[in-house]
Amino acid sequence: MFKHQTGNGHLLVGAGPYIAAGIGGKVRGPGDARFNVKFSNTAGTEAAFYYRPIDAGINILFGYEWTNKWSIRLNADLGVANNNPNNGLGSYHNAGFSIGLGYSLN
Fold first, then answer.
1. pLDDT tens digit sequence for 38-88
2. What is the pTM of this model?
3. Checking CA distances to 103, which of 41, 46, 64, 77 falls within 20 to 30 Å?
4. Domain segments of the chain: what residues?
């Protein structure tokens, strides 16, 4: 995390690795079809969406922290690991984005 004095606060810029583990989920398919998410290093025969259980990637953060300890942050999680257990059928990569409002207690 890098903090740069800007006006009465700090500009926040950060980056770093992340690792994550899949624990469960559901996928909505065409119409009202719903499928369970299964985590495995090999795809099974059950009607489900299969993903590898471990994901890894890069987290990027931009934000601003005011002198009154409030901050706003924009995060992006960009997966670099191939999460498709069917190696011959393309690749899946996770991506997530969030906006946060925070207050520092120190």
1. 888 887 777 778 888 999 999 999 999 998 999 999 999 999 998 888 867
2. 0.73
3. 77
4. 2-20+52-103
The residue among 58, 51, 50 whose CA lies nearest residue 79 is: 58
Contact 104, 63 (CB under 8 A): no
Angle, CA of 42, 48 and 53, to the nearest 5°: 45
Q: What DSSP letter does each residue of 64-96 carry, written as one string?
A: EE-TTSEEEEEEEEEE-S---S-GGG-----EE
Measured distance CA(32)–CA(47) in Å, rounded: 15
pLDDT of residue 85: 83
